[in-house]
Amino acid sequence: MKSTVETLSSTRIRLDVEVPYVELGKYVDAAYKKVAATVNIPGFRKGKVPNAMIDQRVGRGAVLDQAINEAIQDFYVAAARENEVLVVGRPTVDVKEFVDNEKLNFSVEVSVRPDVTLPDFSKITITVEDVVVNDADIDEQIDELRARFGTLNTVERTTKSGDFVTIDLTARIDGQEVDGGKANEISYEVGSNRMIDGLDEALVGMNTGDTKTFTTQLVGQKDGETGDVEIVVKAVKERELPTLDDSFAKLASEFDTVAELRADFADRLKRIKSMEQGTQARDLLVEKLLADLDIPVPDEIVLDEVNDHLEGEGRQDDAEHRAEVDGQVRASIKSDFLFDSIIKAEEIQVNEIELTEYLIRMSQRYGMGPEQFAQELQKAGQISQVVAEVTRAKALASVLARVSVVDKSGNKIDLEALRPAQPAEVQAADEAVQANEQ
């Protein structure tokens, strides 16, 4: 096989491929066997029909067409590899010439990942927020701790945000109760916005024994379908927080005084916000690179993805939504090309230890064992996605280490010092976990 590549644009190429017949031989033999297994010719068993008889009854041309169709994909892949081009999207194939027992010439036009010129990362400066812990931040942590030790008392008044209510819910569409749309004796915190859109607003101002119906989009129904939800309030309770004094500090923590408890929260918040500087630096670096670098995106790929998305939603004719999806797809592909370029430039590879550490950390977040979590990923066909996440996180950590990071007060931030002590091979997995949580 001989192949050449011609650049049509920054994201489009044409491969011209010439294949001598001798390299097509195995495809032709396979095509004859496939035809022989399907045709019925008197006097011959299936699979045992001679090639000459197939040529007579079916035609050699039909066999060769099948052989060429099977061969082109393999030779196209080989030509792309030979010319070191990273193809994306669906190729357009054109058979230029076929001479039986001599050669096959075909061309392929296909989109490719563009060459991205990365900057000198050592010359980039990223500015992050200062680490500031104020009294309001500490008060919020203290109140959350008090809430865990609070008591719920039944009250005879209208509900307000922050109350806990016991309610019955019934969902209906056109007056008919939805399958599985009834739930009784639900305990719910008003204002938490953890259930149905519109529920919190409907509950405010209701009394024990009141019934109210509101309209909302129902979870689990067809896209955009709304229904009526009936609420029956069974009880209204307010949370009484314990008095904030030294006795509470002793009860709720290892500290003897409120002052010590507040100092501990201040230290913890400072550490958390310091870690957030690393996350912020990472996000700002990606944002800067996407804004500064010229990363062309193949229009053909965008169009295909947008059409598939809109078809799935049944909104092919929604011009405004098409423009919105087009922008999202372009941004996503541009980001993919950026990360792929960094991975290639940094020669990033991940090892088994990094993948295992990632799976362990993620399985803990889902409350599953590592082996079970890995099996679920395998069933869902997401193993390659996990590898990509860890690889990209490792690549970004590699270049971020060369970037100068300062806070708004001008203090230099040492990102390495923000990371907990751990083996170098595990750090990429930790970065991937943090990225996944954003």
Short description:
With 438 residues, this protein is an alpha+beta fold.
Kindly describe this structure:
- The chain has helices spanning 21-36, 51-57, 60-82, 135-148, 199-203, 246-252, 258-292, 299-313, 319-346, 352-365, 370-379, 383-400, 415-418, 424-437; strands spanning 2-9, 12-20, 87-99, 103-112, 125-128, 151-154, 164-173, 176-189, 211-217, 226-240, 404-407.
- The strands form 3 sheets. Strands 6, 7, 8, 9 and 10 form a 5-stranded antiparallel sheet that branches.
- It has 438 residues and is an alpha+beta fold.
- The longest helix has 35 residues, at 258-292.
- Among the domains are: 2-112, Alpha-Beta Plaits (2-Layer Sandwich); 151-240, Roll (Chitinase A, domain 3).
- The model is unreliable at 421-438 (pLDDT under 50).
- It is built from 14 helices and 11 strands.
Low-pLDDT ranges: 421-438
- The Cα radius of gyration reads 32 Å
Count of DSSP H/I helices: 14
CATH topology category name of the domain at 2-112: Alpha-Beta Plaits
Query: What composes the largest sheet?
Result: 5 strands, antiparallel
| Arithmetic mean pLDDT | 90
Write the CATH architecture name of the domain at 2-112: 2-Layer Sandwich
Determine the N-to-C terminus distance: 48 Å
Coarse shape? extended
Q: What order do the helices and strands follow?
A: EEHHHEEEHEEEHEEHHHHHHHEHH
